Amino acid sequence: MTAQLWSLARLALGQLPYVFSPAYILGLFFWILTGWIILQLFRRAAWERAALGGNRGSLWTALGWTLLQGLGAGVVASLLLVLPGLTLAGSGVFWLLPVALGLMLLSPRLACFSYAGGLLSVSYLLFGFPQVTVAGVMGLVAVLHLAESALTWLGGAAQAMPTTLRRPGGRVVGGFALQRFWPLPLVLLLAVPKGLVPSQGLVHFSAPAWWPLVLHHAVTRGGLVVGFLPLPALLGYSDLAVSRAPRARARGTALALAAYSLILLALAVLAAHSLVFQWLAALWGPGGHELVIRLGLARELKGAPRYVRPSRGLLVMEVLPGSAAWELGLRPDQVVTTLDGNELTEGTQLFAALRTGGYLHLAGNDAAGRPFTAGGFVRGSPQPGLLLAPGEDEPPQAELRTGGVLTALWARWRRR
User: Fold this and answer.
1) What average pLDDT does the segment 201-221 reach?
2) What residue ranges do the domains of the chain occupy?
3) With CB atoms 3.0 to 4.6 Å apart as the test, which of 163, 238, 328, 389 could cross-link to 174 if both were Cys?
4) How is domain 314-388 classified at the architecture level of CATH?
5) Distance from chain centroid for Cα 413
6) 29 C-beta neighbours (distance < 10 Å), count
7) What is the pTM of this model?
8) In a 10 Å sphere around its CB, with 0-12 CB exposed, 13-18 middle and 19+ buried, how is residue 209 labelled?
9) Listed residue (177, 162, 176, 173) closest to 310, CA to CA
10) Rounded distance, CA 355 to CA 378, Å?
11) How confident is the model over 256-298, as pLDDT tens digits?
């Protein structure tokens, strides 16, 4: 059996180069997605220059890691889909993207295959339209979210952007907006009627008796043939860290997503053999995903805020490497209490000193609460490269909004 699965793995991975080929119609979408990610990286770089006076890292290095991580996740996800024989029948998979884009008009966070897959599956179970395979569609959703959980664990906090926002109740606090996107090359197993798959795309190998795990009867009795479908995909992670540090927030979300994905994958496999599990998979897909989001966000917004001005001193949120503040020895999560022996009560005092330059001496506590001192000669800079946690009277930089284009248009019409 090991040799049989190894043969299938080689056949599947041999299809991956098609995803990068502009000559392959779907391959063009991979580069469109990559271009969109580059645009997002440029926007982040522009924000960093405006807020900190420089960039925290190379844009092209960030792009390289993004592509490398996406490639690794795509290979693993493809094997998780192909080796068990998680087969998509007909053209149900092609409904996912347009439905997800439609849901995005209601709210950006709904642009997720878990909601689109659940909506399609419930519609099929109730009305028989559109023709989708619940087991295959929800299995694909489960594997993609499992890949997303791994990517979020590895790099979900890598490009966190500090911001200030107003929490429910009106208090202004500091936080980090976490947002990452990865383009994935995928290889899917697509069960279609004979004659619709090119001969070079057919699966030719001696399969184990249990293979495929999903849609076994449809493939063997329904006059269908199994072929490979190379397909680009986009995975995204968007979150908010208010009560926890960005890495802790990202890894907590990753663990919750992994648990959700494994449950959904088990339900998808069982759904191939039972109508009851089809309903459970269709409902758990969007319902479980919503549960993960709401529980995580509630913990962040209702927990004790991490990034607020302390009763004494100033809390450092972010420092630009190589800046005047960095050379002086300031680091994130430090609380600076005195400047040249004088107590600090306002951020303007510290910013003015860094802009003026000269010999400065700071004292306070580090992230672990231990006393620290920092001092030395600093060349004055108009951009000291430092962001501090906000005070309660400062205006927020961002407001929490969940509506999309259609929601905004409806609200505007009602105001008229």
Assistant:
1) 60
2) 2-302, 314-388
3) 389
4) Roll (2.30)
5) 33
6) 17
7) 0.87
8) exposed
9) 173
10) 9
11) 999 999 999 999 989 988 999 999 999 999 999 999 998 998 8
